[in-house]
Design brief:
With 472 residues, this protein is of the alpha+beta class. Among the domains are: 11-174, no CATH class; 329-409, no CATH class. Helices cover 40% and strands 13% of the residues. Helix 6 runs antiparallel to helix 7, helix 10 packs antiparallel against helix 12 and helix 14 (417-428) runs antiparallel to helix 15. The protein starts with 18 loop residues before the first strand and ends in a 30-residue tail after the last helix. The relative contact order is 0.11. The chain binds adenosine monophosphate and magnesium ion (MG). Residues 85-89, 116-117, 120-123, 244-245, 254, 256, 470-472 line the site of adenosine monophosphate (AMP).
């Protein structure tokens, strides 16, 4: 059968400034590493036994109906405004619409240069491609809104980084690729017509209930205020929350220097370029409000009375920390077995986190151990844990099903940094077994899977990953 993707490319129909028409650049020897058949089926993609699958998802052949474009956007990178970013190494093939009307972007990442490549080669190496595949699919299985991975292919040609490395292409699926930075680019250029078109497009695609820019802002804020505590509840650090990596849909996007905490460190930073900890674990809640303030600033020109808009948006943004705090409280309350938290449960949670931070207790395993009440083993200062435990036990006596709640909030498996590194090293040497094994185990992160317990173990001292690098 021939691959069939039911495309309807609404973004490609937007006018000129939004994108550049740009086909992917063919590669030497495409070979498929992975294809996500379940996701393809959800999207209404058929003919996935096509022997040319690798050619399609490496960019050597275009599926019928694709209209490849590179999208324009800008963004604040580490707080500095960069007036033009855009898809420098990604190409949107189009939007698939399944028989139920579900619409998703299908994008190749690492598929060659575009007008926005600046000095980059438009390529990706195998490491970041496999990392994004595993981590984005793991996040999905954890229940976190995220872009997904449809395919990964080797290109059969090297890319030059600090040394030659095998090239690869990731096929990413997203609700859309509209970013805060997409609004910023038109706002900064004073292109109010384009801004208005983008606003209408975004409302139509993601927030049909939104009546005006203030509604849109609120709805995006609500999703982001839910997303970041969700990340934090699994010890996830995004690592590069620039405004171009912040979606209007509320999905997690861009798995570059991301990492999961092993031992709990509230100020954990892994990204080698995040020297000041702007995107540290606990800073994520503040930075998302900063990003939303940039979105608010960008859409002010759409408001009839701009002074009043400033007041209105300021009030909305100022209310965001409380929104995040409420979501954080319910996420972490669930982790200790509490269905609907009371205000003073916050102290119970933070007291545990303080003990964990002090002892560098493994984030994932400590919470998971609460399910069978073996948390004590995770601590050095066991007396301190015991007295916390006594308070906790008396609190959860009032809960009807604490174990069930905890088991659903505390995964046994996360994509641990050292396993990701081992997977990449093996794949560079031509062995994809760990990649496939991680995908399989992480598809059911809340199940015990006793045969896979080595993947739940924290790193040995020699295995600890100290820094992660951008996915270029
Ligand atoms: P990211 O780190 O993925 O958020 O990317 C930031 C910007 O750098 C985006 O505009 C990318 O398209 C661009 N970029 C990253 N890597 C490359 C590359 N290898 N070639 C061209 N552009 C790139
Ligand atoms: Mg990006």
């Amino acid at each position: 059968m021939t691959l069939h993707i039911p495309f309807d490319n609404s973004y490609a129909r937007l006018p000129d400034p939004f994108h550049s028409h740009q086909p992917p650049t063919p590669v030497q020897a495409p070979s498929l590493i992975a294809f996500n058949h379940d996701l393809a089926a959800e999207l209404g993609i058929t003919g996935t036994d096509d022997p040319q699958l690798a050619s399609y998802f490496a960019g050597n052949m275009l599926p019928q109906g694709a209209e490849p474009i590179a999208q324009l956007y800008a963004g604040h990178q580490f707080g500095q405004y960069n007036p033009q970013l855009g898809d420098g190494r990604a190409i949107l093939l189009g939007e698939v619409v399944n028989p139920n009307g579900l619409r998703r972007d299908i994008q190749l990442k690492g598929s060659g240069q575009t007008p926005y490549s600046r000095r980059g080669d438009g390529r990706a190496w195998l490491g970041p491609v496999l990392r994004e595949y595993v981590v984005s699919e793991a996040m999905h299985a954890l229940g976190v809104p995220t872009t997904r991975a449809l395919a990964a292919t080797r290109t059969g040609q090297d890319v030059i980084r600090d040394r030659p490395l095998p090239g690869a292409v990731l096929t990413r699926v997203a609700q859309s690729h509209i970013r805060v930075g997409t609004f910023q680019v038109f706002a900064a250029r004073g292109e109010t017509d384009a801004l208005k078109t983008l606003f209408e497009y975004t409302v139509d695609r993601h927030y049909p209930q939104a009546q005006d820019p203030s509604d849109l802002l609120q709805m995006v804020m609500d999703r982001q205020a839910a997303l970041i505590p969700h990340w934090m509840s699994f010890g996830f650090i995004h690592g590069v929350m620039n405004t171009d990596n912040c979606t209007l849909s509320g999905e997690t996007i861009d798995y570059g220097p991301c990492a999961f905490l092993d031992g709990f460190d509230a100020h954990g930073v892994f990204s080698s370029i995040d020297r000041r900890g702007r995107y540290a674990y606990s800073a994520q809640a503040d930075i998302i409000a900063w990003n939303m303030a940039q979105l608010a600033t960008s859409i002010i020109p759409l408001m009839p009375d701009q002074d009043r808009a400033v007041d209105q948006f300021t009030k909305q943004i100022n209310a965001m920390p409380e929104l995040i705090r409420a979501n954080w409280l319910s996420r972490f309350a669930a982790k200790i077995g509490i269905a609907s938290p009371a205000p003073d449960d916050e102290t119970l949670i933070t007291d545990l986190l303080i003990l964990m931070h002090k002892d560098q207790a493994d984030f994932t395993n400590t919470f998971r151990a609460l399910v069978n009440d073996t948390g004590r083993d995770q601590f050095v200062d066991r007396a301190a844990f015991d007295s916390w435990r006594a308070r906790w036990q008396s609190r959860i006596e009032r809960e009807t099903a604490p174990d069930t709640i905890m088991k659903q909030a505390n995964p046994a498996f996360i994509p641990r940094n050292h396993r990701i590194e081992q997977m990449i090293d093996a794949a560079v040497a031509g062995d994809d077994d760990l990649f496939h094994r991680l995908n399989r185990v992480l598809a059911n992160p809340f199940d015990d899977q006793p045969d896979e317990s080595d993947l739940a173990a924290p790193p040995q001292p020699s295995e600890v990953v100290k820094a992660t690098f951008c996915g270029t």
